[in-house]
Amino acid sequence: MSDFYKKILENNKKWVESSLASDPNYFQDLAKGQTPPLLWIGCSDSRVPANEIVGAKPGEVFVHRNIANMVVHSDMNMLSVLDYAVNVLKVKHVLVCGHYGCGGVKAAMGNDSIGIIDNWIRHIKDVYRLHSAYLDSIKDETERFNTFVELNVKEQVFDLAKTSIVQAAWRNGQDLTLHGWAYGLNSGFVTDLDVNISSEKDLDAVYQLKF
C-alpha cells in the first residue's frame, strides 16, 4: 500500500478515537438516523468542504456535489438526492453553493476540449449564452469570471425552483427555502447572492429583480 493510503487509514482511527473521547455515544447517536435541516448542492472541488464552511457537524448537512454545482433536470442522481432530502428528510433549506475560481465555470468560458466533461460543461455554456450580452460587456477578465460564477449559481437556484419536487413541496405547504451562495477560496467567506426563494410567488419576484 502507498504511504498516502496508509495515512488516511490511520487518520480514520485517530478521528474515531478523538470523537469517542469527546462523546462516548457519538457514533451510536449518529447511527440512529439523520434529520438534517439543509441540503447542500455544491461543486466537487476538494477545496469547498460543505460541513466545514458552515461549521456543521455530521448529520446536519445532506450533500450533493458535481462539477460547477449544476442543477440539470435530466440528472437522476441530483433529482434522487433532492427528492429524498425534500420528501423524506424534510429539509427546510436547499443551498446551491458555487465558488470563485471554479474550474468548470472557467472551462465554459473557453472553447478548448477537455474530454468527456465537455458534455457536462455544455450546460454551463448555456448559462453564459443566456447572459452573454452582459458578461461580454465586462472588460476585466477576473470580474467577468466572478460574475459568471454568481450568475451560474443564481440560474441553478431558479432551475431548482422549477423542479417538480420543489414545486410539489410548495403546493403542499411545506416549509422549504432555496438559497444561492458564492464561496471565496482565498478568504473562506461566502457571499449571499440574495436569491432566497420560499414559494412560486417569490420565484417570479426574485427573478425579475435579479435579471
Brief overview, please?
By secondary structure, the protein is of the alpha/beta class.
Give the helix proportion (percent range): 40-55%
Query: Which superfamily, in CATH terms, is the homologous superfamily of the largest domain?
Result: Carbonic anhydrase
Mean pLDDT over the residues: 95
Number of helices: 10
Binding site for Zn(2+): 43, 45, 99, 102
InterPro entries: Carbonic_anhydrase (IPR001765), Carbonic_anhydrase_CS (IPR015892), Carbonic_anhydrase_sf (IPR036874)
EC number: 4.2.1.1
Cofactor: Zn(2+)
Task: Explain how this protein is built.
It is a single chain. This protein has 2 domains: 31 residues, no CATH class; 173 residues, Carbonic anhydrase (Beta-carbonic Anhydrase, Chain A). It has 10 helices and 5 strands; from the N terminus they run H-H-E-H-E-H-E-H-H-H-H-H-E-E-H. The mean pLDDT is 95. This is Carbonic anhydrase 2. Belongs to the beta-class carbonic anhydrase family. It is an enzyme of class 4 (lyase).
Topology (SSEs and partners):
Layout lengths: L2 H20 L3 H5 L7 E6 L6 H4 L7 E6 L9 H12 L5 E7 L3 H6 L9 H13 L1 H5 L4 H21 L2 H8 L5 E7 L6 E3 L7 H11 L1
Parallel strand pairs: 1-2, 1-3, 3-4
Antiparallel strand pairs: 4-5
